[in-house]
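Thread: "does anyone have the structure for this chain?"

Original post by V.I.:
We have the sequence but no experimental structure in hand. Need at least a predicted one for the grant figures.
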Amino acid sequence: RRWLARAVARGTAAAPRGVLPRASWSGGAVDVPVERWDFRPLAVMLTAVVSFTQQKQTSQSSRCSSTQRVSLGKVSDFEEAGMKEVKLDGGSAVLVHRHQGQFYVTSPACSHYGAPLRKGVSSAGGRQSAPTVTCPLHDACFDLRTGQVVRGPSVDGIAVYPSEVKDGEVFALVPSEIATGGKHQKVLKAMSKRRSSDARCFVLLGGGCASLAAAETLRQEDFAGRIVMVTKESHLPYDRVQLSKALDKPVEKLLLRPESFYKDYDIEVVQGATVTKLNTKDQIVSYTSQADQPESLKYDKVLVATGGSPRKLFVPGSDLRNIFTLRTPEDAAQISALAQKGQKMIVVGGSFIGMEVASSLAKKGCDVAVIAMETVPFERVLGKKVGASFARKLQKEGVEWFGTSSVRLFRGNDAVNGVELEDGEVLPADAVVVGAGVLPNTRFVEGLSLDKNGAIIVNPFLQAENCENLFAAGDVCAYPAVKTGQRVRIEHWDVAMQQGRVAANNMLGKFTPFTTTPFFWSGLFGNLNLRFVGHAPEALDRVIIEGDVSNMEFISYYTEDDEIRAVATVNRDPIAVVCAELMRRGRMPSVSELMLGTVNAEVLTQRLRDLSQMPAA
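Reply from O.Q.:
Generated one for you, C-alpha cells below.
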C-alpha cells in the first residue's frame, strides 16, 4: 500500500493537467488528472490482492493453530538407523525414525491393510534414494519425507509430521485431533485434472490395479489430457487378491477407490466393455459396449493391462454346473454360496490361488481335496522339501492332497458330482474350483510381437517392440529381468501395480526402466504367512533352508551359481522385506557365505542397518 501511494503521487505530479470527475477508491475521494498512466484501476486490483493475501494468511494461521507441539522423548531414546513407536498422551501413537542424524515422524500403521510399520524395515535409502519405511507384510514402501508411496500395493501414502530437536529433545507438530486420540489420515499425492487445452487421449485397457496405478500416476505427474479406462468388469478397480482369501467379502469392501474419486480427477471408466480390436497402426481401440454397441477410441498412447483369463480343463464334463474358476467377485460369491459345512469341494491345481481357495473352503467346514500334477504343493516354485512341509500342513488341517494326479473327466448329469482321475480313482464332489493358472488377454492386439504364452514383448520401459505409443503391464507383459535380461512374465499383484506406475511415467516420455524386485505374499489357514521375493531360476540350482521347516517357521534361499536369486519366508517377517531391500541395493550375501554359516537372518537385518548408517553417497 505504501508503494502504491508513492506511485500514485509520482504519477499525479508528472501528469499533464486535465480534469477528471471526482473519483472514489479505497484511499479516499481525490481529484485525479487525466493521464496516459491511470493508476486507479491498478490500485483497486492491488488492494483486492492485498486483502485476499491477508485472508489467506489468516486462514493458514487458523489451520496452524489446530496443530499441537508434542514431545517424543530425548534424542538418546532413539537408535540411529532405527524406529520407535511413541504413545502420545491422548492415546494415539506416532512412529519416529532416525537416519543419519535426521528425525522423521510418521503415522504408525501401513495404509494398505493397517499392519504395524514398527515391525517392518526403516531404511536411510541408498544410491541417492529417499529414506523409507516398508511394511513387514506386503512390501508397501513409503517416503519418510513426504509419506508418498514409493512402491508396493498401497494406493495411499502415510501421514508425516514436522519434527525438530531442541535442547536434546525431539518434538513433532501433529494435528490436535491426533494429540487427543484421533485417527491418522491417509495421504494422496496432489493430482491434476483434465484441461481443455490438452487434446491428448491416453487409453488404459483393463480395470485392474495396473490401470488404476497408471491413471493416478498420470494425474500426479500433471497429465491434463483425457484418460479413458476400458474394462470388461462391471465393477470399478478392486482388490482382487482378497477373492481367494475371503470368498464371501462383498465387492463394495474390495474397491480400491470410490466412484467419486474417478469423477473428481476426470478419469473416465467404461465398464462392461469388451475390446475387440487394437489397431496399433491407426491407433484405434475398438470395443463392444455394455449395451452391445460397437464403439471406438482414437488414442495418442495406450496401456494394455487386460490381465489374464483362467485356464480351463478341456476334458469330458467340463461344462457341467458347479465347476468354477476364480477371477471375479461373482465367481467368489458363487463358490461361497456352495461352500457349506460338510460339502465336498475339489480344487484342481496346486498353485498359490488353488491353495488359498482350499484354505478358505476348509475354514468354512467343507471337506476339501486338492488335485495337482506336482508331488507336493509349490514344488516347482519352492522346491520339494519346502513343499513337503505344506503337504503336512494340509493333512493337519484335514485337506486331502492328490499329488502327481490329473483329471480324466468330470462326472454328473446336470451338475458335477464326481471327479475321475487318470488312474481311475473317483472323488465325490459337490463343486469343483479349477486353479490352473491364467492366459494373457491379448487376442485383440494386432501388429505386435507376442511371446509363446501370448504376452506382449516389451523393453525395460514397458514399451512394446516396434510400437512406441503402446505399453503393457501386469499379466500380459513379458519384460527383461533387470538382473539377467531374461524375458519374464510375473503374475504378481505387486508387480502389476508398480508396472502401471512405471508405464505411466514412460507414456509421458520420462524413460524410467522397470527395475522393481518382485514380491509376493500368501496366507493359509489363518496362521501361515508366506512371503516370496526375487525371481527364482526355472531349474532350482540349490535350495538352502534356515530355520524349522517342520514347525513352519523358516527361510528358504534359492540360488544360481554363487548368487541368491530369491528368498521365501514362512512366519519370519520382516526378513523377506529385508532381503528385498538388500537385493535392490545389490548387497545380498553370496551363496558361499550362506554355506559357511557366516550369514543368517539376524546378520542380514544388521547388514541393512549398517548400510543405513553409512554416509549418503
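V.I.: this helps a lot. The longest helix spans residues 40-64.
O.Q.: and The chain is about 25% helix and 30% strand.
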